[in-house]
Specification:
CATH topology of the largest domain: Spore Coat Polysaccharide Biosynthesis Protein SpsA, Chain A
CATH superfamily of the largest domain: Spore Coat Polysaccharide Biosynthesis Protein SpsA, Chain A
Radius of gyration: 23 Å
Subunit structure: Homotetramer.
Function: Involved in the biosynthesis of ADP-glucose, a building block required for the elongation reactions to produce glycogen. Catalyzes the reaction between ATP and alpha-D-glucose 1-phosphate (G1P) to produce pyrophosphate and ADP-Glc.
GO biological process, one term: glycogen biosynthetic process
Structural class: alpha/beta
GO molecular function, one term: ATP binding
Shape: globular
EC number: 2.7.7.27
CATH class of the largest domain: Alpha Beta
Length: about 425
């Protein structure tokens, strides 16, 4: 938590509104049954836990989460892991699924509409400032410092931004700023992103984080809802309008990111593709990972199942329960299986003579005897049959599973069942 008392005071006057309704279609089958913010990450947590933990650690105790696509597992996770707020202290976590309202469609039409449909609920908490957050990125940030920057600058909106390679920037809102952080231009997902001044290979991308003074935001949203030509979206409509007519200020992530001694640079990831998801998880097994999940000063809170410790059994040549450069969660049993650079979530079972390298296995997956797996993502509860080999024959992998351009294979139970069809 910030040592800046003024920043903390401002955070306590704020409410966080997390937009967590997206599917994340580039994750393909992984989001067939769950929204992207509900995706598992890092062995114990889910993606939504990062903006939620950042909010709580920053001193914000009034939070709303807007859900839409395949929201059941996300809502269940929030109910189980985030029910510790005390209403008598004006704290709370409101889960806001898209619901039918008078004179309105039941779906959220855009990010701004998701907030607009819930203004009455937000007003019930009486916040002075509102922090709009995306629910699907991995990072640690002290939002109180960003809110303080917003207040000190006198901005109408403050936009959190991060430097990204220019070739990747077309997936984001991109901005051009002057030397005082004033946003001169804002483009949502441009085909040809503008480069940062002096950095031709980099672009300044929106993190999907915005700070507003509450009364100003209510007025903006009412005007936007009345505009029939609007797509009711922050990136496409609200922010460009403020850039044109008011004062929009950029807040570089580097000014408020949370780092420990081992984290050398600001860490922010959009794990929106199978390759990015696999890489970010496997990176955690590095000797010195870029993201420190062992940071007790800025914990990532989550719903934690009650499980026994991980267990490694058998000690024979070729049948030895072992793991190198790996993270193994509670409830796992490594039974005569060898792991190298793997990340196993809760309750995974790896049976004798199996060899796992670069495996990200979600909760309660089971790897059969003599399976040989390399660079794979295994969905929750999948049962890998005995003797299956994946990651060593590109053509065979392409036929049976979803193989990415980087050679990572996604395995679901439906794909396994199709092998016998």
């Amino acid at each position: 938590m910030s040592n800046d008392r003024e920043a903390l005071r401002l955070a306590q006057q704020s409410m966080a509104f997390i937009l967590a309704g997206g599917r994340g279609s580039r994750l393909y089958e992984l989001t067939d049954i769950r929204a992207k913010p509900a995706m598992y990450f890092g062995g114990k947590t889910r993606i939504i836990d990062f903006p939620l933990s950042n909010s709580v650690n920053s001193g914000i105790r009034r939070i709303a989460v807007a859900t839409q696509y395949k929201a059941h597992s996300l809502i269940r996770h929030l109910q189980r892991g985030w029910s510790f707020f005390r209403a008598e202290r004006n704290e709370g976590l409101d889960i806001l699924p898209a619901s039918q309202q008078m004179g309105n469609d039941n779906w959220y039409k855009g990010t701004a509409d998701a907030v607009a449909q819930n203004i009455a609920i937000i007003k019930g908490y009486g916040p002075k400032y509102i922090l709009i957050l995306a629910g699907d990125h991995i990072y640690k940030q002290d939002y109180s410092l960003m809110i303080k920057h917003h207040v000190d600058s006198g901005a109408d909106v403050t936009v959190g931004c991060v430097e990204v390679p220019r070739e990747e920037a077309s997936a984001f809102g991109v901005m051009h700023v002057d030397e005082n952080d004033k946003i001169l231009d804002f483009m949502e997902k441009p085909a040809d992103p503008p480069a940062m001044p002096g950095h031709p290979d980099l672009a300044l991308a929106s993190m999907g984080i915005y700070v507003f003074e509450a009364e100003y935001l209510y007025k903006l949203l009412e005007e936007d809802a009345a505009d029939e030509s609007s797509e009711n979206d922050f990136g496409k409509n609200i922010i460009p309008k403020i850039v044109e007519t008011g004062l929009a200020v950029a807040h570089p992530f580097s000014r408020s990111c949370v780092k420990t001694g081992i984290e050398k640079k600001a860490y922010w990831r959009d794990v929106g593709t199978v390759d990015a998801f696999w890489q970010a998880n496997i990176d955690l097994t590095d000797f010195t990972p870029e993201l420190d999940l062992f940071d007790n000063e800025w914990p990532i809170w989550t719903y934690s199942e009650l499980t026994p410790p991980a267990k490694f059994i058998h000690n024979e040549e070729g049948r030895r329960g072992s793991a190198t450069s790996s993270m193994v969660s509670g409830g796992c049993i490594i039974s005569g299986s060898s792991l190298d650079r793997c990340l196993l979530f809760t309750g995974v079972r790896a049976h004798s003579y199996s060899e796992l390298s670069g495996v990200v296995a979600m909760p309660y997956a089971e790897i059969g005897r003599k399976a040989k797996l390399k660079n794979v993502v295994i969905d929750r509860g999948v049962k890998i049959p005995e003797g299956l080999t994946v990651g060593y024959d590109a053509e065979a992998d392409e036929r049976r599973f979803r193989r990415t351009k980087n050679g990572v294979c996604l395995i679901t139970q439906k794909m396994i069942d199709a092998l016998d069809a």
